[in-house]
Design goal:
With 387 residues, the protein is mostly helical. The chain is 75% helix and 1% strand.
């Protein structure tokens, strides 16, 4: 704790940025855990952020599309120093995990064909399915409650995603509109409208140097993908699978599962998996454009919506739409778990690894996810080394 940690006044911007740099470097556990760290450290212990400011930031992160933890961090940066604060906090929070992913991406491209690497990801892929399943359970408890309409939307989205093996935009929109219409009837209001928020090492991916057209496509595609992230960064997984694997054929199914695994073993926001995907497609330029594409829309939402958020947050139409979309996103994650499970659990050993990981994740005594992932990787290495 720093010397100005408990004075309750505005902290030096340098101290504020150093906190997010450390959180981005050491913060594991997913968006809920990272948001909890911010609340405990910045509100309760240091007094740098008021409880009301934190609640408003958390509400914005839940209502607007984008990874929850990154969006909350940017909002708190905006509270501290407006646009400059949001910009610097974004770099401090996202930068460490981005650099780690670049290193892992380069190692993967260089040595991905080696048997020991394949063995590690044989076990890690199975553990990732368990982590996704656990995330679905947590999101269901947090977002659906006893609302029967949201449960129906969750189920429909899960079934459609598992059957189509991709996210379908109109399903998300429909799931947002349904609660609006039903709640309008209950409140007796007459109108409703929705505002949609809107070849040297490291230079080439697995397919060699990429053309300018591919780089532009990477930027545009991942910017659009950011609009499908509500609550958990894992909400982006089914959308990415449909585009990266099925539509553009940038990655094989095995490579895509490995990309999700990399995001699990690095700290910071889960959506940093896009940097790994971009690297495999187009090297350092692809990784950078993919990260810029997925985080810039989040940043723009924060800096432009934050000054007017008081009015937006109280709009029941916006809340109803977001509730429906969040239920659809949770269902899509469940559908993605089914899709990826069919590829990651091809035999009895991987099924057992996944079940063991899920069991350990559900026990009251918390075990860090990276530790479970690395343990699963070592088990996979042993199994692949003996077969």
């Amino acid at each position: 704790m720093t010397s100005d940690a408990s004075d309750g006044g505005p902290p030096p911007l340098r101290s504020f940025l150093f906190y997010f740099l450390r959180l981005g470097t050491l913060g594991f556990g997913g968006p809920i855990a990272l948001a909890g760290h911010m609340q405990q450290d910045l509100v309760e212990q240091r007094g740098w952020i008021t409880p009301q400011e934190y609640k408003e930031g958390l509400a914005l992160a839940q209502l607007a599309p984008g990874p929850l933890a990154a969006q909350l961090a940017m909002y708190l940066g905006w509270v501290r120093a407006r646009r400059l604060g949001a910009t610097l906090v974004a770099v401090a929070f996202i930068g460490p995990s981005f650099l780690m992913v670049l290193i892992l991406s380069d190692l993967y491209v260089r040595f991905g064909g080696l048997a020991w690497i394949q063995g590690l990801f044989y076990g890690i892929g199975a553990a990732v399915i368990a982590i996704i399943a656990r995330s679905v359970l947590k999101l269901v408890r947090m977002t659906l409650g006893r609302d029967r309409v949201l449960w129906v939307l969750f189920t429909v989205s899960a079934l459609v995603t598992a059957w189509a093996e991709t996210e379908i935009i109109w399903v998300f929109v429909l799931c947002g509109v349904v609660p609006m219409l039903l709640r309008r009837r209950r409140t007796g209001l007459a109108t409703a409208a929705v505002a949609f928020l809107p070849a040297a090492p490291g230079l080439a991916g697995l397919g060699g140097p990429a053309s300018a057209g591919v780089l532009w496509k990477i930027l545009v595609y991942f910017a659009g993908a950011a609009l499908f992230v509500f609550g958990s960064g894992l909400a982006i997984v089914p959308f990415l699978y449909g585009g990266v694997v099925r539509q553009f054929h940038w990655l094989t199914e095995r490579q895509f599962i490995d990309a999700v695994a990399v995001s699990m073993i690095t700290p910071g926001p889960v959506v940093i998996t896009v940097a790994f995907i971009g690297y495999l497609v187009a090297g350092l330029a692809g990784a950078t454009l993919a990260a810029v594409g997925v985080f810039v829309p989040v940043y723009l939402v924060v800096v432009f919506v934050a000054p007017h958020f008081h009015r937006v947050a109280k709009n029941w139409r916006v809340k109803a739409f977001v509730d429906g979309v969040t239920a659809a996103a949770t269902g899509a994650i469940a559908g993605a778990a089914v899709i990826l499970g069919r590829r990651s659990l091809p035999d009895l050993p991987t099924i057992l690894i996944a079940l063991a990981t899920l069991t350990l994740l559900l026990v009251p005594r918390k075990i860090p996810e990276p530790a479970l992932i690395m343990a699963a990787g070592l088990v996979g290495l042993v199994l692949r080394g003996t077969t």
